[in-house]
């Protein structure tokens, strides 16, 4: 599997999950990937600002996904379409 596909797979799984989760949970969300593949994808997503990695008080790394830029744009364009239709 190509690196870009792995990163996209992990990012999509995090978006669908919709809440903060541990590294172990991310690995569980992507059973077709190895732990190392998930780690490298999370590292890339963190460095590019698509997710946030934080260490909680129990010393567990938690991953928080940020909404993608296309989601707010899609919602805004749908809202504009509805407003035009009702005018």
Descriptive notes:
Helix 1 (3-17) crosses helix 3. With 87 residues, the protein is an alpha+beta fold. It contains 4 helices and 3 strands, in the order H-E-H-H-E-E-H. The radius of gyration is 16 Å and the shape is globular. A 3-stranded antiparallel beta sheet has the order 1-3-2. The protein has a single domain, classed as Orthogonal Bundle (Arc Repressor Mutant, subunit A), CATH 1.10.10. The termini are far apart. Mean pLDDT is 85; it is low at 72-77. The longest helix has 17 residues, at 70-86.
**How many strands?**
3
Query: What helical percentage do the residues reach?
Result: 55-70%
Please give the alpha-carbon distance between the first and last residues.
49 Å
Q: What sort of overall outline do the alpha carbons produce when their principal axes are compared?
A: globular
- Strand residue content: 5-15%
SSE layout and pairings?
Elements: H1 3-17, E1 21-22, H2 23-29, H3 35-47, E2 51-55, E3 61-65, H4 70-86
Helix pairs in contact: 1-3
């Amino acid at each position: 599997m190509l690196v870009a596909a792995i990163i996209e797979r992990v990012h999509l799984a995090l978006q669908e999950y919709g809440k903060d989760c541990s590294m172990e949970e991310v690995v569980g969300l992507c059973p077709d990937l190895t732990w190392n593949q998930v780690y490298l994808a999370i590292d890339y997503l963190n460095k590019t600002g698509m997710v946030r990695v934080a260490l909680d008080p129990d010393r567990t790394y938690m991953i928080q996904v940020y909404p993608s830029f296309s989601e707010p744009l899609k919602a805004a364009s749908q809202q504009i379409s509805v407003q035009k239709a009702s005018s």
